[in-house]
Amino acid sequence: MASAAPPSPDSSRSPATPPFPGFWAMAWMFLFQPIRLHDRLTACGIDFENDPRPWRIPVPLRPVYGRYVANLSGMLFFLMPLLSLAIALVLHGLGFPLDLGKWAVGVALGVAVGVAYGVLVGVLVGVAVGVAVGVAVGVAFGVAFGVAFGVAVGVAVGVAVGVAVGVAFGVVGGVTVCVTRGVADGVAFGVTRGAVIGAFIGAFIGGATGVATGVAFGASFILSSFRIPLYPLEAAVQWGLYSLQALLRIPTLRYAPVRYHDLSRLPHPFLAAHIILDIPPPDAVPRIDQSRLASIQETLEACDRSPGQRRARAKVLPWLQAHALARQVVAREFAAAAELRGEFLPGREGAPGLLIHLADIARFLRAAQATALPYHRLGHVEKAADSLEACRARCVEERSPLARALLASLPYWERVMAEMREATAAASRMLPNPFRAGPPLLPDQGREVFRGREGSVKGIEALLAGHATSIALLAPRRCGKTSLLNMLPILLPDALCVFFDTQDNPTQSPAAFFAALDRRVREAARKSGIEGMPTLPERPAFEAAHQWFDALEGFARGLDRRILICIDEFERLPALFPGERRDLLLLMGLFRATIQHRRYLRLLVSGMTAPGELDAREPDARDGMDNLWSDHFINLREVRLGHLAREKAVELLRRPIEAFPEDAVPSAVAEEIVARSGGQPLLTQLYGSLLVNRLNDTGRRRAEAADVEAVEREVLEQASTYFQNIVSDAPAGVWGALG
């Protein structure tokens, strides 16, 4: 018999390769964990898929194959006779006569048949399968012949032999055939063998007794192949372990029968409930949390292997997802929760609506965590709390497994929000600071200070109502183009607005460009609650894009709702196709066809420069690239954004939100700021934000003219990149005037 020591150092095993199982370990796994045994042997170098012939075993793997053959041979020559003798002695104790001489002949005959069959299969198929099949045949016929020859026949003999041989063939047949053809074939193999051997026994004995014995053997063989005799014990143990943990709170999942038996074909009672019960609370100590989750993962993997327990994962997964999200929120890992990123979580793409809802709440909390302004932090937390109440109502209404699991985890979300509220309680004693001078405004972050663009929005809405007209939104740098595009979904509720930023979607091929655009369309549709949105077909890039645009046009016509594709920083489109310029021409041709012929699928491009002005900058273009923009962006109507009007800028500074005190920024102070900023949106917001910070830092509630002078230096420092871009974008003739 082979020991449990690993193969010799000169083998090809890597340090991560598991040790080769010893004889007794392999015997246990052979009988009860054949799937894990197959994986273990494969990791050690036994190749069942490309099984070598005996004379072609690679030299480095010969020690591994030697241990494999030795262990299985030990089962045939040592364990099988013991099994056969045990059955014979039990029957002898029940009153049946036993002839040890005939028993020995039967066992020897079974061994001879197994060895001969194994050698034949080994030569024809390969060593690994040949040895396993030979052991299967040897065990089956050794037990059958030994008991049949050595014990007086009868129904009891048929049952006893059927159980023993059924277990052997169910395991070995299942493993060897499962390795190459799947578990179902292994079962069919075992059932067929049961019928054949039963018929053989019946014919061998003859008469009514032979028929009864054969039938008893065949029925017992089939039941044993399906592991039915073990099921009552497994079910009782599983129920007991679940009850023990439920009543006494003692972790017992690691003893679940499914972890020790791969071939149980009937579902164990309370197994899924037991796994759910073992899930630790989201605020558990990390060491306990990791240990329990590792045990759960191992149990789920065992369920995946066991044919009767494979539905357990689907029942448990919603509770694991709810736990994972709550654990991330408790640990303040809001970024991971917002993306549904982590163990057991599916990611945002294709995730259930309830998980998306909670992920959006995590985005509010992430924004609250990121901002240094107490007012903004408190506002984000309040928005998260309102959305959490809506999520709770939705869970109560749905009552799905996921809804029930999430409902149980919501108190942890509420606790985190309460702690964040308490931490920002000082915000109630300070002036609120809603001004935003950083990234573009979003509907849920800065909508209240989005001012002075009502005319532009009405112009876009009027153009969309027309026929075959697309739009160019033009404005100088940092004047609010992207903020306006972000606000369009709430300002134009009758249109599906798809925002595509060329800077945020770097691509190197037409296929990648259209794939990114497809993702943005589906994301916008999901947020708007639109289902059935056509997806990009799998064809050559431009052929697929034309077909997809036609499908989007038809889909939008059916909804009687326009789809507006908004491409921000459109001047960067050539940079997305740095190689073949023909690709850029094909893309522009697709845009031109959309502008001319599609009524419900519309195009909005946003940038700093009008298409005609871009062509004027490249007068020497060749290969069809001259007049690229004006030739393709025909019938394009321009909407221009400038600085905020004086009265709008003053209104923004004096009353950015309803809760802002009317006298905090006097009219004279607001007028002075607008005179310095010129109503430029970035600078106006920056002045307002720094002014409120100064008042809060000094404990005052009213600004003075001197405060404007005091914050101006900081405005110039924080907006230095903006001023540098203004200088670099200026025409060459202006540089001299700028000094």
From TrEMBL:
The chain crosses the membrane at residues 16-32, 68-91, 103-125, 132-157, 163-184, 196-223. It comes from the Bacteria. The keyword Transmembrane applies. Keywords: Membrane, Transmembrane, Transmembrane helix. The keyword Membrane applies. InterPro entries: P-loop_NTPase. This is Uncharacterized protein. It comes from Candidatus Kentrum sp. UNK. The lineage of its organism: Bacteria, Pseudomonadati, Pseudomonadota, Gammaproteobacteria, Candidatus Kentrum.
